[in-house]
UniProtKB/TrEMBL annotation:
Entry binding sites for 3-phosphoshikimate: K20, S21, R25, S160, S161, Q162, S188, D307, K334
Enzyme class: transferase
Sequence intervals crossing the membrane: none
Locations listed in the record: Cytoplasm
Gene that this polypeptide is encoded by: aroA
Alphabetical keyword list: Amino-acid biosynthesis, Aromatic amino acid biosynthesis, Cytoplasm, Transferase
Keyword Nucleotidyltransferase: no
The protein's name in its UniProt record: 3-phosphoshikimate 1-carboxyvinyltransferase
Amino acid sequence: MEALVSPSTLTGIYRAPASKSAMQRACAAALLRGGVTVLQNPGVSDDDRAALGIIRQLGAQVTEIDGTIRIESAGVQPVGGALHCGESGLSVRMFTPLAALSAEEVTITGAGSLVRRPLDFFDTVLPQLGVSCHSNDGLLPLKVRGPLQPRDVTVDGSLSSQFLTGLLMAYSAAAARNVTVQVEGLNSKPYIDLTLQVLQDFGLKVPRNEQYERFVYDDRDQPPATNELSYPVEGDWSGASFLLVAAALFGSLEIRGLDVFSPQADKAVLQPLMQCGAIMSVRTDAIEVRSGKKLDAFHFNATDCPDLFPPLVALAAYCHGTSVIEGVSRLAHKESNRALTLQEEFGKMGLTIELQDDLMIIRGGGGLKGATVSSRHDHRIAMATAVAALGADGPTTITGAEAVGKSYPDFWRHLQQLGATLSLTDNPRA
Ligand SMILES: O=C(O)C1=C[C@@H](OP(=O)(O)O)[C@@H](O)[C@H](O)C1
Ligand SMILES: C=C(OP(=O)(O)O)C(=O)O
C-alpha cells in the first residue's frame, strides 16, 4: 500500500490507541495468573493479535466480547506444540521462557524481520535453567523444552530488555523463591518498570529491583489469584509520540488517553518537546500541543527509549540548528536497522543525518522536500516520514504504508480524521 501525504495541518481531539507493550504483557500475565481476566481497551495491532494467538497456543481461551477480550486460563498448557510470534520482538522474547515453563517441546516461529532478529540469549541462558533450547544459530525457529526452573543466573541486558521481561515473567509464574536474576548492562530500563507494574497489577510475584542490576525473589509465597480481574490497557505513548510531534510542528491537538504517570519509556518524548520550545500544556486528562513558534534544536539521550528515534528525527528536521540524539547502537536490531533507514529515507527528503559512534546528528531547519520514500517494512519509519511529510514543500509518497499495522493500524485513518490531506492506494511497490 502507498500513502500520498500532502502538506497539511492537524487540528482536533485525538485519542491514543492501546499500547502494544502494555497489551502484550497483559496477555502474558492473564495466561500466567490463571482464572478469568477481562481486558478493557484491548490493542488491535498485529503484535497484539500475535500475543493473543500465542496465549491460545499456550492453552488460554480467548473470547472477544463487546470491545473487550475475555481470557480464561489454567496456566501454561501448550496446545499443538507451536508458537507463531508474527513479527513481534517482544512476543518471541517474552513468551519463549513462558512456553519453557511446560515440559512439552514447543517450536517457536516468526515472520518478516523477526527471523533476522537475534535470540542467542536463549541459547546461553535457558540451558542454565534446565531448559533444552535449540535455535537456528541464534535465530528462529527455536525449539524449547522445559520445565524452566528458576535459579540464580546472570544475564546480559544490553541488546534488549525484552529477554529480561520474559525471564522475570517466567520466574514470577513459577513462584520463584530465594533466587536472583543478575543483569549486566541493562538498556531500555523503563520497559522493565512496565513489566514489574504489570506483574503487580495481575497479582503475580514481583521481584525487588536493585538498581536494575539484580532482581531478587524473596522467600515469600504468592497468594493464588481468585477473583476475575478487569484490566484496562493503557494508551500508547509510542504511537502518540508521532502525533505529539506533528501537533508541535503543524497544528493544534488535544491528546487524550495517555497516562502521564505511566512507566512507559516513550513518555520521555515530552522532554525533547519541552527542550525545543514546543507550546504544550500537560494535564492528567489531556495534553495540548500546538505549533506557532520557531523550534530550537535539542539534545536527547534515547538509549532507554529507542522507539523515540523515528518521531524525534521528524521533529529535529524542523528544529533550527543541529539536534543530537544519543543511543544509535540500540537501533541495529529493530524491524530495520533504524539508524541507517532513517538516514537514507529522510535523506530522500533532503535531510542531512550523520551517524557518529552512538550519536545521531541532525541538521534541521532547512525545510524538507516532498519525495518518494519507503517504510522499509518498518512501522515507525512509515509514521515518522508521514509526520515529516506534513511540512514538506510538496506531496510525499510512502511505499509499504501498511507497515503501520504492526503497532498502529489506525494511524492513517487518525491522521486523515485530524485533517491531513492523504490518500492510500493498494500499489504493492515497496
Ligand atoms: O518491552 C517492550 O515492550 C519493548 C522494548 C523495547 O525493546 P528493547 O528492549 O529491545 O530496546 C522497544 O524497542 C520495543 O519496541 C518494545
Ligand atoms: C521494535 C519494536 O517492537 P518489537 O521489538 O516488539 O518487535 C517496535 O515496536 O518498534
